[in-house]
Design brief:
The complex is a heterodimer.
Chain A: H1 2-23, H2 27-44, H3 54-68, H4 79-83, H5 93-114, H6 118-128, H7 133-140, H8 144-164
Chain B: H1 3-24, H2 28-32, H3 39-64, H4 71-99, H5 104-144, H6 149-155, H7 157-177, H8 179-200
Helix pairs in contact in B: 3-4, 4-5, 5-8, 7-8
The chains are: A mainly alpha, B mainly alpha.
Chain lengths: 170, 201
């Protein structure tokens, strides 16, 4: 089971990371949520039924974990402060600038997603992952038509947030 | 702002996820086997501890009062009490086990249902079972010394009133002010809001 689990995490680590980033601001909360998602996947791995796609099932369990996650009252260290540009000296200047702009865009996107409501974050995450409406509907538990309406509304809200955060200036 | 740009940026975020994964790769299994901080997992652990403690207390009482006249009644009362505690424990465990095996909306509804059941159960323990146990214990002790409960109360009203006040304050604190509302009530309300937002928002 350990090897299966390792393979699953190796293949889908992006899901855990992105969900944890979208639902937390502090580094400690990020670590806790990331770990909690791993725990829940580990605990319910035997429940996974082959009829559903593995990634769909991982999203389901991970989003449920993120939506019910309770933040802790502890020291506040923003995620960005801890893991960004640790190896600047290893990069040449041009590559660094390119990376810098790209990372700033990604950080801004996370920042704006963080300002959405919890359920909106779940839906926009799946949309950004290029999931089809049918699959999003299956994961969330709503009808596809309802999901379509919701996505349009959340996208408009996200665009407003990005504009308000001076997205064009990056 | 073109839409593909947003998705394009998002796809690039995978690189950061990979950087993070490199650092934790060796410890993922260890991380996954750690104690869960999820509310349902805490409830599961608390219920197991609570049940084991109630069984242990019951056994100690039976051993201590083995030669008592009401031994049979006490054993029946103990077994009934154990079943009262055990039945919701098993029922909740079953619900907790099934809670993650569903879509997000059903999962959240199950979560709220489990919290509701647990809160109801806590209230039952605090407001009904606990006072009955307290009064029952008092009567048992008093009768075992062959005295009248009223007589004992009048003779010892200061310590008994003190115990009674502490008991009431502890229950108010647990049930109304802090324990139930903060640990279980607030998260439940928060999840209920998410459900409403998913369904209607």
């Amino acid at each position: 089971m350990s090897q299966d689990f390792k393979d699953i995490v190796a293949k889908h680590h992006g899901i855990f990371y992105k969900i944890a980033r979208a639902y937390t601001i502090e580094k400690a909360d990020f670590d806790d949520l990331y770990q909690e998602m791993l725990i829940q996947i580990w605990k319910s791995l035997h429940n996974f039924k082959e009829e559903s796609k593995l990634s769909t099932w991982i999203y389901r369990v991970s989003l449920n974990t993120a939506l019910t996650f309770q933040r802790k009252e502890k020291k506040k260290i923003p995620i960005k402060q801890l893991n960004e540009f640790e190896n600047i000296d290893q990069l040449n200047k041009a590559a660094f600038e390119k990376t810098n702009i790209k990372e700033e865009k990604i950080e801004l996107l996370y920042k704006c997603i963080n300002q959405l409501k919890k359920d909106e974050r779940a839906i926009i995450l799946l949309y950004l992952e290029n999931k089809k409406y049918e699959e999003i509907a299956l994961i969330i538990g709503l009808k596809s038509s309802h999901i379509g309406v919701k996505i349009n509304r959340i996208k408009a809200k996200l665009h407003k947030l990005l504009k308000a955060n001076d997205y064009a200036g990056i | 702002m073109p839409e593909f740009d947003l998705i394009d940026i998002w796809q690039k975020a995978d690189e950061k996820a990979s950087d993070h994964y490199v650092h934790i790769e060796k410890s993922v299994v260890k991380m996954a086997k750690a104690k869960s901080k999820d509310l349902l997992s805490k409830i599961k652990r608390n219920m197991l501890i609570e049940w084991l403690i109630s069984i242990a207390i019951g056994i100690v009482f039976i051993i201590q009062l083995w030669n008592h006249d009401y031994r049979t009644e006490m054993i029946i009362a103990f077994l009934s009490l154990s079943l009262i505690v055990l039945w919701p424990y098993l029922s909740l465990l079953n619900k907790i086990k099934k809670s993650s095996d569903s879509n997000v909306l059903v999962g959240l509804k199950n979560y709220v249902q489990i919290l509701n059941l647990f809160i109801k159960r806590l209230k039952l323990l605090i407001y009904i079972i606990s006072p009955i146990t307290l009064i029952g214990s008092y009567l048992l002790v008093v009768y075992s010394y062959g005295k009248s409960p009223v007589e004992v109360f009048i003779d010892n009203w200061i310590p008994l009133a003190f115990v009674f006040i502490i008991y009431i304050l502890a229950h108010v604190f647990i049930g109304i002010i802090w324990y139930i509302p903060k640990l279980y009530g607030n998260p439940k309300k928060e999840i209920e809001k998410i459900i409403i937002s998913i369904e209607n928002g």
